[in-house]
Design goal:
nine-stranded mixed sheet; globular; alpha/beta; single chain; six-stranded parallel sheet; Dihydrodipicolinate Reductase, domain 2; Rossmann fold; 392 residues
Amino acid sequence: MRDVRNTGGVSRRRALGMGVGASLSFGSGKALAQQAIGQPLIGNPALPEVPQSRMRWAIVGLGTFAVGQVIPGFASARHSRMTAFVSGNRAKAEELGSRYGVSQFFGYNNYDDIGDADDIDCVYIVLPVGLHAEYTIRALEAGKHVLCEKPMASTSAECEAMIAAARANDRRLGVAYRVHFEPNNVHVRDRIANGDLGTMRFVSGDHGFDANPDWPPHKWRLEKELGGGGSMYDIGIYGLNTSLMMVPDDTPVSVSAVYSTPEGDPRFTEVEGGLEYRLRMASGISLSGSSSYCWNPYVSRQRYFGSEGSIEMQPATTYYDNTIRLEEAGKPPSEYIAGNPIDQFAAQLDGFSQAARSSTEHRTPGEMGLRDIRLIEAMYRSADQDGAVVRL
């Protein structure tokens, strides 16, 4: 920071009043009015690590989300940097590499060679869900820590195999539930934990969009083999995981669900188009939600009701625009933003880097991903029985 002090010289007012014949000379290196001087480093500021000491990442899969959100997140990261790209399109990988200073590239045909790369510590799996388990396990067996995009995998059995591989190879495994690092959601979690809403009574989350089968980023989501499941796997899981994040000491004990897929819609021959669910929690409260591939415009809404107040977030889990609306008994509603949502990407990367380096538990570990897939599987069992209650 530049430190500028008045050294008792000529003020701006006096300089303007000196007239035509007056002049200020700086040629001697001695300022007549102001002088820049140095300051010692004050306190213990949280400085970012120098690039050479940051955890080094390979990004596996260079689709729309990776290119538009994950990769730019490294620009603000303080403990993480990219050193490799894995893609089936070498030209795209090299183009992105030239833009972001990455010069090491792998294809899916030589993916296992990452095990010989000493400059890769962590791997971020940003592939379609049906490929998560295979590429996560192979990276773990190559000796790398892995952060896998949500949902963790297609089945709970795959999740269990991923966790077993992480333990067998003594590597950290995380699921990319970025909302746990998003400042507005973290703020709401803290307010609930502090008792600002009183005793929690009800939680709900609704998330959906209109799937376009002609757009490649949507097309694979409508295919069972790649998408794992339907809207609940892809978009509904945001509501499920975020709602559970807000009541961490509570436990689901039963679930019921029904499908809400439009009759005859050709998009949904392999996966469901929508689901409505209700979790009964050990505390006695309900946690409900819905997901859909049939809503337009995009919906991202979370609501939290307590004995003394309520909070609604709409949007709640987006990349850029999350907002908080607080209502308390006897007070007018207030709407505000607690932080910049875009910070969630760098915070998630750095959170995992620090956990991997220190061999400590990640905030959103593989066990959390397994929990959520088990709950979604139970929802499907209930919906297959027209809403029958499934005990957990």
